[in-house]
Design brief:
Length: about 350
C-alpha cells in the first residue's frame, strides 16, 4: 500500500511538471524573418511600416527584419542567415528574381514556409505569393493613356516610357500590360528604347532630360513608379516644357503620388498596395495551422484629379488652406501657354 502511495505522489508531481514544460514550448514565439530588397524608396519604407504595425498586433510572433540594401548578394546572405537560425517562416521581397530564387528554394526544400511579397521568383517553389497584378496595372495605365491621347482607335502622340528595375518582374509586367493596349494604337509612337530607371527619381530625371534634348514633341510619360514620373516632370519643368505633357506613375502613396496628382504635377497614378500587412496576416494564419491560398492578388485603382482630394482628406493630409493653394497652382499650370518648338530645348 505504501509503494502504491509513493507512485501516486510521484505522478502528482511529474504530470504537472510535464504539462508546464509543454506549455512553455507552445508559448515560445514564432520567429518570422523578413528580407526586404531595399529601403531607399518611399514605397519600401511604407511597406516596412505597414508590416511592422501589423506584426505588433500579434504577441505570439518575433519579427526579424533585414535590409538587402539594394544588393542581391546582401539579400542572399540575409536569407542564408534565416536558414541557419531555423526561423519558423520567411517573408521575402526579392530585389531580382534570378539571383534570389536559389536561396529561397533552398529554404523551402528544408521545410521553411516562404511567403514571397511584391516581386515574383523564377519558379514557384514557395508557399505563397502576395502582390498586385502588375500586368493589369499596366493595361489600366495604357487605357488611361489612350483616353488622354484621343481615345480608342483615334489616339496619337509621342510617348516616353521609363522602366523600373529591368531585372525585376514588376517592371516587365508593367511594360507588357501597357504595351498590350498601346500597340493597338498606330498613332502612338514610342520615342526611346527601354532604359532602366531602377525605380529612382534621379534616374527618371536623367532619362527624361535626355529625351527632351532629342525630341521636340513629347505628349505623354509613362513611368513605372511615381518617383520616376516626378523626376521626369522636374526635368520637363527645368526645360520649360512641362505644360501639355501627361505624366503617369504607379504606387499612389497618399503623401507622395496622390499629393502630386492633386497638385497637378502628375496627371494620374495607379494604386500598387504594399503587401506588408497582408503578409503578416497570411503568415499568422499559416503558423496557426490554417490553410492559405497559393496566390493573393491585391486590388488596384486609378487616382486622378477626380478622386485625389478625397483620398488626401481621408488620410488627414489636406487642409482647406492647402486645398485653396493647390487649386491656384493647378490653374496656373493649366493656363501657362505652350512654348514654341524653337524654344523647347532639343531637336529630333
Amino acid at each position: 500500500m505504501r509503494q502504491v502511495l509513493k507512485v501516486f505522489v510521484l505522478l502528482v508531481w511529474i504530470v504537472p511538471l510535464a504539462w508546464v514544460e509543454t506549455l512553455g514550448a507552445t508559448d515560445k514565439p514564432f520567429v518570422i524573418g523578413f528580407s526586404q530588397a531595399t529601403t531607399t524608396e518611399p514605397w519600401r519604407l511604407l511597406f516596412n511600416k505597414e508590416l511592422r504595425t501589423e506584426a505588433a498586433k500579434y504577441p505570439e510572433i518575433e519579427l526579424i527584419v533585414r535590409d538587402g540594401q539594394d544588393d542581391a548578394q546582401k539579400q542572399f546572405a540575409d536569407v542564408e542567415e534565416f536558414i541557419e537560425q531555423r526561423v519558423d517562416l520567411i517573408l521575402i521581397s526579392p530585389k531580382v528574381a534570378g539571383a534570389l530564387t536559389p536561396v529561397v528554394n533552398k529554404a523551402f526544400d528544408m521545410g521553411i514556409p516562404i511567403i514571397v511579397l511584391d516581386r515574383d521568383l523564377a519558379n514557384k517553389r514557395y508557399t505563397q505569393f502576395i502582390g498586385g497584378d502588375n500586368k493589369l496595372i499596366g493595361r489600366t495605365a495604357g487605357q488611361y493613356a489612350v483616353s488622354r491621347l484621343g481615345g480608342e482607335g483615334k489616339a496619337s502622340g509621342n510617348l516616353v516610357e521609363i522602366w523600373g528595375g529591368m531585372k525585376s518582374t514588376p517592371a516587365h509586367d508593367r511594360h507588357e500590360g501597357f504595351a498590350e493596349v498601346i500597340s493597338k494604337e498606330p498613332g502612338i509612337r514610342s520615342l526611346v528604347v527601354a532604359r532602366d530607371g531602377d525605380w529612382k527619381q534621379d534616374l527618371g530625371y536623367e532619362i527624361m532630360a535626355d529625351a527632351l534634348e532629342r525630341f521636340d514633341k513629347i505628349d505623354l510619360v509613362y513611368a513605372h513608379n511615381d518617383p520616376m514620373a516626378y523626376g521626369a516632370y522636374l526635368a520637363a519643368k527645368d526645360a520649360g516644357r512641362e505644360n501639355g505633357i501627361v505624366f503617369l506613375g504607379i504606387d499612389a502613396i497618399p503623401a507622395e503620388g496622390v499629393r502630386w496628382v492633386h497638385e497637378g504635377v502628375l496627371t494620374a497614378t495607379f494604386l500598387y498596395m504594399t503587401p506588408g500587412a497582408e503578409g503578416i496576416r497570411q503568415a499568422i494564419r499559416l503558423l496557426r495551422g490554417e490553410e492559405i491560398q497559393r496566390r493573393v492578388t491585391l486590388p488596384t485603382m486609378t487616382i486622378d484629379r477626380s478622386n485625389a482630394e478625397q483620398i488626401l482628406l481621408r488620410h488627414g493630409l489636406l487642409s482647406d488652406e492647402e486645398d485653396d493653394k493647390t487649386e491656384e497652382h493647378s490653374k496656373l499650370i493649366a493656363e501657362r501657354p505652350s512654348m514654341p518648338a524653337s524654344q523647347s530645348g532639343g531637336a529630333q
